[in-house]
Amino acid sequence: MRGTLWRKTVSWLFVAFSGLSVLIALVPLAFILFFVVGRGIQALNLQFFLGTPKPVGEVGGGMSNAIVGTLMLVGLGSMFAIPIGILSGVYMAEYQGTRSASAIRFAADTLNGVPSIVIGVFVYGIAVLPFQQFSALAGGLALGIMMIPIIARTTEELLILVPSTMREGALALGATRARAVFTVVLPAAAPGIITGVVLALARIAGETAPLLFTALGNQYFTTSLTQPIASLTVQVYAYAISPYEDWHRQAWAGALVLVSIVLLCSIFARVATHRLERMARGT
Amino acid sequence: MLSIEKFGFSFWRGDNWDPVSGDFGALPFLWGTLYSSILALAISTPVALGIAIFISELCPSGLRAPLVFLTELLAAIPSIVYGLWGIFVLVPVVRSFEVALPDSLREIPIFSGPPLGVGMLSAALILAVMVIPYTSSVAREVLKSVPIAQREGAYALGATRFEAISAALYYARTGIVGAIMLGFGRALGETMAVTMVIGNTPQVTTSLFAPQHTMAAVIANQFREAADELYLHALIEIGLVLFVVTLIVNALSRLLIWSMKPHRQTAKARATVVKNVAAA
Question: Is the pLDDT of residue A61 over 60?
């Protein structure tokens, strides 16, 4: 047994290190937010939202094409990811504990960990190569694949929280299992699921790697589904590694828009879940 | 795949990457991916565990929710924003650190190489920050699943905070390893932030200052330009191996984390607390 003083000192150092590590993590966060907001605001103006990229060497222009592109890509992705995600979440929650539900959960968690660049390569193989055409559809597909596991897991976790008496009540009234799920359980969990979807949208809007060779990017304004389309992230990437001062400025502005989307969604989700928790506690 | 037919396993031993003459060796990318991820883990793991412990064991309950929110915000920031910040803020800082390093230290292999700023050190630092939220949030969940009696037992035996918490950590060790592996999987696959600061130069070196390359980064950089079939297949093979490796790492980490969930406090676990405290 070592001396009490020694043990107390070790313990105190440990607590201090633990507190310090929180600071270590928050410093980069503060720095990133500080720089993104500071440099982004200087470059943010009406032209940024309304203009399209100017040719190299000309100052000015904006990213309206990329903003619309990101909205379209995220929209396309959600169109097929939300139904698939919610339905697989329902399956996992309804067949809790069965072998197939665990297998799906495991698959979803693993898919969630697949590097986004690999998803890009995969979608290139199935949606770009066969048609010899980079397209908004391929980009949307790549984003959708990334959304599915996030939405499925959120849906599952929230459905489990719905009191089993509600489900049993519906079944006791003679509802079929499907009817009980879709008219009683899902609506009860809906606010939470919507929150989960919003978070998934925010995360997916910030993805770059899966879009590099699916949606490709585009200097012009387009809303065509079968043409290459710009996105905020790919545009920020192209501008960041370019040698032009003005493009760097716009990259910071693009980053500010991205971070604002993420922040607003996170805060919204935070407030919403707080509300849900309070409702669940009945206060 | 053409690259497998042509090079076989020597693809992963060769260190020459020359698309023009059609000679492909992927060792530098494998090296860069592993080196940057392991460095990042070495930096992030103590910090992430410290955060998890602080939030779940030490901090006042009013501070808990805001701290969780802030650390998870780190995971929500898009990697392209990390990369942008890396290029314009972190890299110049790293460069001035490298320039300021005394010559005597520059003799050591890991500090050799030109002080460019872009390179392994910047990549590892940025990766470390990006991995922290993943490891710490899983580690926090795992710590939460350690029965409260575990700690009470330790305190009752006269343990200090450190001793009680290390007993809890020991109890949760499978899950903690799972959390670290989850972070490892993230680091292996991270693309944008790394490619923007690592310098994208395929070479095998232990130097922290030298620009290097990773598997994810080379795909992001060269996939669009891969004109001939062999080149494209070489990149796809890299993608395939990256996929398989992350799949294995993730699957293992999930299994470890899940094995923590349905636990009951066994006599054995109780005995370990007594043993740990007695040993301390």
Answer: yes
| Sequence ranges of the domains in chain A | 64-281
The reply to whether A252 touches chain B by the CB within 8 Å rule is: yes
d(CA B223, CA B7): 19
Distance CA A200, CA A81 (A): 10
User: CB of B25 within 8 Å of any CB in chain A?
Assistant: no
A7 touches B: beta carbon within 8 Å:
yes
> Which of A32, A37, A241 to mutate against chain B (most B CBs within 10 Å)?
A32
The superfamily in CATH containing domain A64-281 is MetI-like (1.10.3720.10)
pLDDT digits (tens, 9 = 90+) for B90-101: 999 999 999 998
Q: Which residue(s) pair with B17 in the sheet?
A: B24
Residue A204: partners with Cβ closer than 8 Å, 6 or more residues away = A74, A77, A143, A146, A147
List all residues of chain B from 33 to 62 with a beta carbon under 8 Å from chain A: 46-51, 53-55, 58
DSSP 8-class letter at B16: -
What interhelical angle do B173-189 and B161-171 show, nearest 10?
A: 70
| Ordered structural domains, chain B, with CATH | 2-279 (1.10.3720.10)
Alpha carbon of A175: minimum distance to chain B alpha carbons (Å): 33
Predicted pLDDT of residue B264? 43
Q: What is the pLDDT of residue B226?
A: 85
The structure tokens 């596991």 sit at A149
Q: Exposed, middle or buried: residue A172 (CB in 10 Å: 0-12, 13-18, 19+)? A: exposed
With contact defined as beta carbons under 8 Å apart, do A63 and A53 qualify? yes
Q: Give yes or no for residue A77 having a pLDDT over 80.
A: yes
- Flag whether pLDDT at B270 surpasses 70: no
pTM of the entire predicted model: 0.91
